[in-house]
What does this fold into?
Amino acid sequence: MTTLFSPIDFTIPSVHDGITIDCRLHLPTPPRHSDPPRQPPVVRGAVMAHPYAPLGGSYNDRVVGLIVQELLQQDFVTMTFNFRGAGDSQGKTSWTGKPELADYESAVGFLLSYLDGVEVARAGPGSETGHVTTTLVLGGYSYGSLIASHLPSTTKIWKSFADGGAHGIHAQIRDRASKMADTGHQQPMAGDYGRMEEVAQISTLYLLVSPILPPVSSLATMFAALGPESIVDCPTLAVYGSADAFTSKRKLCRWAEDRARRSGSGFVFREIESAGHFWIEEGVDVELKEAVGGWMRSMMKSDVDAS
It folds into this structure.
């Protein structure tokens, strides 16, 4: 079992226009009392975005659920959310992708604020929280990967929330996160977390499942392709099937190899034989989980070794 608690459902406003979006927080199983604490403490958070809403995408998507399970296995506090127009989130799906980008930024700002608030609540008033290493995974499946790859830098998002003032949408999201962290939402927090006092301490990873490329990507957003710079400069895993009906194996392979061989690239990819875009073929879901889990374990080992 990867989680001890039921997911926490809540809502936040989108920084784009204030409409309400559905959110869900998944907490990993707390460590045993016999487990030694991590020194220095490592904050692990992740956001996973769903496929295109007009085609039925939502945070209840099966593939999104598979990835969430793997993230929980690695002790990541994981957040999923419904883009505008999906599930009970307000609004409608846009043709540009810009409002959805802001929806995702809202989720990132909430999660960073929540993790920050958890440590403040744990340490107590006036307590020192110390140096912290923070690892944040920004992920998405299909359309969700397209939006994730175009996010501003984590530093820029966090700064917008830190500098958001005492009023406005950013402040509302921060306050909601702080209250949930302070009360624990009637549930204990997993892991040994510290306060994110410096933006530079946040290490960002990208996880792209069944990425979509032109011309399909151009039909859903104004983005011609996945963001090229962030997913090359930062550690990134792209996982796709050789039988993806939306983008050919040849095009996906060429796209992935181009990014992997760039100087200083942190981009790696895994092609799953016979897997389609929806991961319904026999056994491919297991291979997907193994690919993501193996990459996460290697990243977390590097994280621990570096600390």
Observations:
- The chain is about 35% helix and 20% strand.
- The two ends are 28 Å apart (CA to CA).
